[in-house]
Write a structure and sequence with these properties.
Elements: E1 2-9, E2 14-19, H1 45-53, E3 58-64, H2 66-75, E4 82-88, H3 92-108, E5 128-132, E6 147-151, E7 167-170, H4 175-190, E8 199-202, H5 210-215, E9 223-224, H6 230-269, H7 275-299, H8 309-321, E10 328-329, H9 332-377, H10 403-409, E11 412-416, H11 422-430, E12 441-447, H12 448-504, H13 509-533
Parallel strand pairs: 1-3, 3-4, 5-6, 5-7, 7-8, 8-9
Antiparallel strand pairs: 1-2, 10-12, 11-12
Helix pairs in contact: 2-6, 3-6, 3-13, 6-13, 7-9, 7-12, 8-9, 8-12, 9-10, 9-12
Length: 534
């Protein structure tokens, strides 16, 4: 199966793409979008991927947050692409909460090198909804969380900074009012002052006005009847909230780099006393950082586990290929024999499915263990640490259905006159003799498609139950592997930090103060990285 992978971090506006496990070719069309916001090329993404993969028959694994995955699903709607949300990035709500925690930490744990005004309030994204309605306050929703400004003319938007601003047009207004204001809004769109993503239509009636809006030039009108609408909330997440986080993180990174440079300049001014101890501290700090990176990489592991659908497809192919040149059986004797043959095939196919399922589970677990081992080796830690995988097997807990008797019931019976001999028919017609009554003959017909459907109906619940067992067992084994590595790395980090503390105690008071400042910046870096990537 053709496979694509899309990783998008909106907080860093960083995109990674793989086609069949490989990076895009040089001068690929996707190359120019890898440092841009996903929404700037989202509408063109399906066509671009289809061009790279020769059509829409491919699997696409997405790593990113829920709001972006929702929009990705929308643009691929109606396509044959199979989408999966592979790794989930934290939502904007979680990121904003982490940003609040960072501000709290900066206020309670200040550092002289990092200039920060402790008196300021924690900033929040400024979201002002522009609600356009014919009469002031006629349709204005009663809101608490959002700042909503009502306008009676869209042309007044020219005076406002419209970046990331949601604009809502009330459809309960007159048709002429809607038409005139849509013309104004269309000019804003044509001049790239706003995008269609910013434009919403408020309709608290049961009347469907989608077609009317499309006739007025709105290709995919976003109609809402509350600000809790999923599409509206998705817009707030993707645009004003995410862009606010991007700006905040950029400002922190710039201030971090500038402050750290000042700290480094002061470090050079210190005398070279305790040079050996300082060198040891530096090595320990570097090792601790590598261990933390390895730990984070293992925590952020690829959580996409196989769905084993290919094994189910193989089973179904076995059913479909059985007696494929034949459509029906016309005798009870043959049906008796064929039902036994079919049941034997189903038993064998089931055991093959179960065996292949266990083999794939083992292979996947070994592959995953190898990936974790590679992440650990990247820490260049001198202690060899190997985790053996526990062999996990699944077995059906259900009894096989008595399918033979059910198959033999799937027959059609009819009674027909036997065919008379040609000479007898000729003689009757010649001498004008009446046709003698004949005893009706029973005919049977066993449609094989009904047998195949019955087999699927009976066996698919058993197969799906096995698949579910396998997924749960594999998920549990993978988590145990991750926990084992994380526990080990956490312990080693603590040991190295204890050694570092011992070394720091040998320094002068000024050097200890400087080292404490360096550790403070390391902690700040960890906190920023967690917001950016977790």
């Amino acid at each position: 199966m053709v496979h694509a992978e899309l990783k998008y971090n909106p907080y860093l506006q960083k995109t990674e793409i793989r086609f069949n496990g490989k990076v895009p070719k040089i001068n690929s069309e996707v190359e120019k979008f890898q440092t841009k916001k996903l929404q700037t090329w989202l509408d063109n993404l399906p066509e671009i991927f289809a061009s790279e993969l020769n059509g829409y028959d491919f699997d696409l694994d997405f790593s990113g947050n829920e709001a972006d995955f929702i929009q990705l699903n929308e643009v691929f709607s109606g396509k044959t692409v199979k989408l999966k949300h592979k790794n989930t990035l934290e939502s904007t709500a979680e990121k904003l909460s982490e940003l609040d925690e960072l501000y709290h930490w900066l206020k309670t744990q200040p550092n002289d090198y990092f200039l920060f005004d402790k008196s300021i309030e924690n900033p929040q994204p400024e979201i002002s909804v522009k609600f356009i309605a014919e009469e002031a306050d006629q349709f204005l929703p009663n809101l608490v969380e959002l700042d909503v400004e009502q306008l009676t003319n869209a042309s007044k938007l020219i005076e406002i900074d419209l970046e990331d601003t949601p604009i809502v047009l009330a459809l309960m207004s007159s048709k002429e009012f809607i038409r005139q204001n849509l013309q104004v809004l269309q000019k804003f769109i044509d001049n790239h002052q706003i995008s269609q993503a910013q434009l919403f239509f408020w309709n608290n009636t049961e009347q469907n006005q989608t077609r009317e809006l499309q006739d007025l030039g709105i290709r995919n009108p976003q109609i809402i009847n509350s600000f809790s609408n999923k599409t509206f909330q998705c817009f707030l997440d993707v645009f004003p909230k995410t862009n606010f986080l991007v700006r905040q993180l950029e400002e922190f990174r710039q201030k971090y780099d500038k402050s750290l440079l000042t700290l480094s300049e002061n470090e050079v001014e210190f005398d070279k006393t305790n040079a050996t101890v300082l060198a040891d501290i530096k090595l320990l700090s570097e090792q601790i950082e590598k261990l933390k990176i390895a730990k984070e990489a293992i925590i952020q592991h690829n959580n996409l586990l196989p769905d084993f659908d290919s094994l189910l497809e193989n089973f179904n192919r076995q059913i479909a290929s059985w007696q494929r040149r034949k459509t029906q059986i016309k005798s009870d004797e043959e049906a008796q024999k064929k039902s036994e043959d079919f049941e034997t095939l189903l038993y064998e196919s089931f055991w093959t499915f179960e065996n292949d399922l266990n083999i794939e589970m083992t292979d996947q677990l070994d592959k995953f263990a190898l990936e974790l081992q590679e992440r650990y080796k990247e820490s260049q830690y001198p202690i060899v640490f190997l985790v053996e995988t526990s062999q996990t097997h699944v077995k059906t807990k259900n009894n096989f259905p008595d399918l033979k008797s059910d198959l033999l019931k799937l027959k059609k019976e009819s009674y027909v006159e036997p065919q008379s001999e040609m000479f007898t028919d000729f003689k009757n017609k010649l001498f004008k003799q009446p046709k003698a009554p004949m005893e009706m003959i029973k005919k049977v017909n066993y449609p094989l498609e009904n047998w195949r459907n019955k087999a699927k109906e009976c066996y698919e619940p058993l197969l799906n139950d096995l698949k579910k067992q396998a997924s749960q067992a594999l998920y549990k084994s993978v988590n145990q592997l991750v926990e084992t590595y994380v526990d080990f790395l956490t312990g080693q980090i603590s040991q190295q930090e204890a050694k570092k503390s011992e070394k720091i105690s040998l320094l002068t008071s000024d050097q200890q103060k400087l080292q404490a400042d360096k550790d403070w910046f390391s902690t700040l870096d960890d906190k920023l990285t967690e917001i950016e990537n977790n």
